[in-house]
Design a protein that fits this description.
With 630 residues, the chain is of the alpha/beta class. The protein folds into four domains: 4-201, Aminohydrolase, N-terminal nucleophile (Ntn) domain (Glutamine Phosphoribosylpyrophosphate, subunit 1, domain 1, 4-Layer Sandwich), CATH 3.60.20.10; 212-356 and 467-547, HUPs (Rossmann fold); 363-463, no CATH class; 548-615, no CATH class. The protein is built from 24 helices and 19 strands. The strands form four sheets. Strands 3-4-2-10-9-11 form a six-stranded antiparallel beta sheet, with helices on one face. A six-stranded antiparallel beta sheet has the order 5-6-7-8-12-13, covered by helices on one side. Strand 15, helix 8 and strand 16 form a beta-alpha-beta unit. The longest helix has 27 residues, at 464-490. It is globular and about 65 Å long. It starts with a strand and ends in a 15-residue tail after the last strand.
Length: 630
């Protein structure tokens, strides 16, 4: 079957200050829509814009002073004049730390100082940086598939197997091609003029020492700024309004920001058929309190938007890795299309609030060692809520493995059942488990890779709860990065303010036991929004449950799933057993297996099929070769 050629949207690549990049420039010539040079005159940053000539919601600013060049691209509020001021103050690439620490929003930063290049993304990984050696030149880009095409890279099937884990930690979310690597979020890539390259960690998390009352003003300030940088003058902005304590604060802040910018706000809620769901009660209350001539509300009634699982067999083209949000992909696209037709270019979401506002129960493991008396009180409350057994709780508390040892132990448990929900999970991350349809050979290869990576592995923060918060934010950041690309193509680009660097830092600065409690729901957000939201909207202590949505969609679109898993390409690669996969995915979903396990496999299979049907990159004077599995 002939391949269609997809026209790339916005992208950029950073080049070293030497002649080794010349062949890269020649091959990419027809794709280049903008370029900036080193002080030497050699190309430094090249990139492209969307086919319509725009770059969506992306803002790109550039500044030069002496032998310093700076470029910031993404969602931010920096003007050319402000960046020019920074360029005058930066004398070494290490000075970029101060610029990065001051930035509101979510952006890439690229710098060149005296011929040394620095490239970095965001702490949450919504903005990622990939790098590879292309014909002897070390280059960096914001798209992994571009580097894979330039190097004719083969698929790394072990990295692809890692994407089949029920929950893939950020450390295992690597590019799925051999020879293409990712800069860890919170680190920067340095490219020397002599061809040398190195990765340096620039981000340091704050000490977790504030009370919720002390930390609330910083969170309010950071979230307000995160929303504001995504609101342009006279623009229409959409914002989720589920009624929960994640999306509702964003909507109230967006109301203020759009009012100041003489713009419009459209709040969005997706109706749920489940009669036990209470989102609509809280959303209606918030809508009544959120009133203004520039504000309108849209409720998609049940059945008005595509179901879960709708069109999962339809290849999602243009992505450089599998998108975990494959189950609601049709709903994401249709929502973006409707909002775009209404004039919105931005869709603010509450995604990320669950990851950064509270902490996971493993905070109790840390708390028992810091404040045992308080820990016993929290444990009693949590056991009552979650029905943990005494013996299971005591075993979880007694375990004291380092992160490296915990990770190595997980490598030996990949094919064991997922732990029961009635047992406390106090480990560094969620357990690493492969679904039953992954082949023994693929599981063994991944086990060896994890064991190798565990040697010397260091946690993101010393505490388990802090490490988990950062890991979950980065897992979600990877999904949001791809969802932004999909939705921007349709109309209104999805944006997650909770994943901005400053918001994440404001949450991490608060003691874990002040961010989560058996007796209060998201206490840090409640404290932060007291002066912004009416008291009535801060009282919610429940969260919507979507199993009805899941099973309803699974029943209605079983044919889509059957089509996706008919002669799966994953099986051709030796990664899944087709018979087991089809039986488990198409029959009643097995109890104890997280929905995310099915999502991961659907995402990987869909991505492989999209890659077969559409070619993203063709280069001047040649046809891109089909990249075969390695």
């Amino acid at each position: 079957m002939a391949k269609a050629t997809a026209v790339p949207g916005f992208w950029f690549m950073a080049l070293p200050d030497n002649e080794s990049a010349t062949p890269v420039l020649r091959r990419l010539h027809s794709h280049i829509g903008f370029s900036h040079a080193h002080a030497s005159g050699r190309p430094w940053v090249i990139g492209g814009v969307r086919p319509d000539g725009g770059v969506g919601i992306t803002s790109t600013v550039h500044a030069e002073h002496g032998r310093t060049r700076l470029l910031v691209t993404g969602t931010h509020s920096l003007s050319d004049t402000e960046l020019q001021s920074w360029a005058r103050r930066i004398r070494h690439v290490a000075d970029v730390d101060r610029l990065a620490a001051s930035l509101a929003g979510c952006a890439h930063i690229v710098a060149t100082v005296d011929g040394q290049v620095r490239v970095q993304g965001s702490v949450s990984g919504v903005r990622r940086v990939f790098y590879a050696s292309v014909g002897g030149a070390s280059v960096a880009a914001d798209r992994a598939d571009l580097l894979a095409a330039l190097t004719d890279a083969s698929l790394d099937t072990t990295r692809l197997t890692a994407r089949l884990l029920a929950i893939t930690p950020d450390a295992l979310t690597e590019p799925v091609w051999s020879g293409v690597d990712v800069v860890p979020p919170g680190s920067s890539l340095l490219l020397g003029a002599g061809g040398e390259k190195s990765v340096r960690r620039w981000w340091q998390p704050p000490e977790q020492e504030l009370s919720s009352k002390q930390g609330a003003p910083a969170l309010a300030e950071a979230l307000t700024a995160a929303v504001a940088v995504r609101v342009r003058d006279h623009a229409t902005v959409a914002s989720d309004m589920s009624g929960g304590l994640d999306s509702t604060p964003v909507s109230f802040l967006a109301a203020g920001a759009t009012d100041s910018a003489a713009g419009k706000l459209v709040t969005v809620r997706i109706g749920v058929a489940d009669p036990t769901h209470d989102d609509h009660l809280w959303a209606s209350r918030a809508q009544q309190m959120l009133d203004g001539a520039h504000i309108s509300h849209k409720v998609f009634e049940p059945g008005e938007l595509p179901d879960m699982f709708d069109r999962v067999a339809e290849p999602v083209t243009g992505l450089d890795e599998p998108i975990r949000w494959i189950r609601p992909i049709a709903r994401l696209r249709e929502t973006a299309r409707w909002l775009g037709a209404s004039g919105a270019t931005v869709h603010l979401t509450g995604h990320g609030g669950d990851e950064v506002l509270p902490v996971k129960p493993n905070y109790l493991h840390d708390l028992m060692r810091r404040r045992p008396v308080l820990a016993r009180e929290h444990l009693a409350g949590m056991r009552a809520l979650r029905r943990w057994s005494v013996s299971g709780t005591m075993r979880a508390l007694a375990e004291q493995r380092s992160y490296a040892k915990w990770l190595a132990d997980q490598a030996d448990r990949l094919t064991t059942p997922f732990p029961a929900g009635s047992q406390p999970m106090f480990g560094w991350e969620y357990p690493l488990r492969l679904p039953p349809w992954v082949t023994p050979g693929a599981a063994a290869d991944l086990s060896r890779r994890i064991r190798q990576g565990a040697e010397g592995a260091e946690p993101y923060l010393p505490s388990r709860s802090g490490h988990t918060t950062v890991d979950l934010a980065r897992q979600l950041g990877s999904a949001v990065r791809l969802a932004e690309a999909v939705t921007e193509e349709e109309g209104a680009a999805l944006q997650a303010p909770y994943l901005d660097d400053r918001v994440l830092e404001a949450c991490l600065a608060v003691r874990p036991e002040e961010r989560s409690s058996p007796w209060t729901y998201k206490p840090l957000m409640v404290e932060a929004m007291r002066d912004t939201m009416p008291e009535g909207s801060l009282e919610r202590a429940t969260k919507g449950e979507f199993s009805d949505d899941f099973f309803r969609g699974q029943r209605r679109h079983r044919g889509q799933m059957a089509e996706l898993f008919d002669e799966p390409l994953l099986a051709e690669l030796g990664l899944v057993d087709t018979a087991v996969l089809r039986h488990m995915a198409l029959a009643a979903y097995p109890p104890g297996l997280p929905w995310s396990a099915l999502d991961a496999t659907m995402a990987a299979e869909n991505w492989l099929r999209a890659r077969e049907q559409s070619r993203q990159w063709t280069f001047d004077g040649e046809e891109s070769r089909v990249i075969q599995p390695g």
